[in-house]
Amino acid sequence: MPWGEDDGAAMRILVTGSTGMVGSNVLEHPEAARHELLSPPRSELDLLHAAAVEAYVREQRPDCIIHCAGRVGGIQANLRAPVAFLTENLLMGTHLVQAAAKARVPRLLNLGSSCTYPKDSPELLCEDMLLSGKLEPTNEGYALAKIAVARLCDYVAQEEPDLRYKTIVPCNLYGRHDSFDLTCSHMLAAAIRKVHEAREHRTLVNIWGDGEVRREFMYAGDLAGFLFFALERYEEVPPLLNVGVGRDYTVNEYYENVARVLGTEVEFQHDLTKPVGTPRKLLDVSKAAALGWEASTSHAEGIRLTYEYFLATEARGGRAS
Question: Regarding beta strands 172-174 and 217-219, do their DSSP bridges make them parallel or antiparallel, or are they unpaired?
């Protein structure tokens, strides 16, 4: 059946970054069973090598690509390795998009990032704000790479109307398959580990800054669900689309929420010498809502599921299944 006649048909889908948090959640989502998913590990497909990417896509001929791969991390990781965050994410994205275009892959969902929007915006972050202001310095390299790949998707679609490449911009994420390594983890995963260890060892929980910056976090399983939702309504999805939960909390509130879900009382201390990033990042998700989608996992349930995964990971001394 030609593409476009039935968006609900089973597809051959290449998922990059299949061992990362988002890719892993895509693979284990119930909708994945309806499709043939290609999920090559880095040893089989290294996105940093253009020729290898081009050959793989040409040989496998997927109907669609979901690009989840990338070098990711929190403020500490971005500050430690800005060159890698810029160059690796840029190379992976451009190699994949160019290979897809050469092989005439008709659809590609590219994962962007909310850090691509201007810093210090007092308003909800809307899709038309891209490239309208200065970026947050603590993750500028990563943001620049994500912006460039999003624009590349737009350019391909402009030059080749039958290649409809689109970028999905999620809010901050957490969930199963997250990293709890404090040298590279995102804030909510770090909060779960810190609160757990503070309870176990009767120590204080250290929070960077005064804890008053605000963030929006979505359970990664909900993003996976949205990606399958988008594939079934591909023509309705705009070229750039925000996906989130539509509300935020302060960092202090996230730590308090984690402690509440873990059923413990811990003491917090604040390190005012540490960087905290932009004061607020809250996405305008009205366009996703207009498509009929909203996140289904409550904040408390998401923390509970993520903590269960963390405990399983710790018990196994590595990554949990």
Answer: parallel
> Which residue out of 56, 117, 142, 174 is catalytically annotated?
142
Of the chain, the end-to-end C-alpha distance in Å amounts to 36
Q: Name the amino acid, one letter, at 99.
A: A
- In the residue annotation, 142 being an active-site residue is answered as yes
On average, the pLDDT of the chain sits at: 94
pTM across the whole model: 0.93
The secondary structure of residue 202, as a DSSP letter, is: T
The yes/no answer on whether domain 12-178+217-247+282-300 falls in CATH 3.40.50.720 is yes
**Are 190 and 182 in contact, with CB atoms under 8 Å apart?**
yes
- What single-letter amino acid sits at 295? A
Burial of 234 (C-beta count, 10 Å sphere; 0-12/13-18/19+): middle
State the pLDDT at residue 183.
Answer: 86
Per-residue DSSP letter, 274: S
* DSSP state letter for 114: G
SS (H, E, C) 230-266: HHHCHHHCCCEEEECCCCCEEHHHHHHHHHHHHCCCC
The structural domains of the chain, with segments of one domain joined by +, span: 12-178+217-247+282-300
H-type alpha helices, the chain = 21-28, 50-60, 75-80, 82-102, 140-159, 187-201, 220-232, 251-262, 286-290, 299-316
The strand order across the sheet containing 249-250 reads 249-250, 214-215, 280-281
pLDDT (tens digit per residue) in 296-321: 999 999 999 999 999 998 867 654 44
Stretches in the chain below the pLDDT threshold 50: 1-6, 319-321
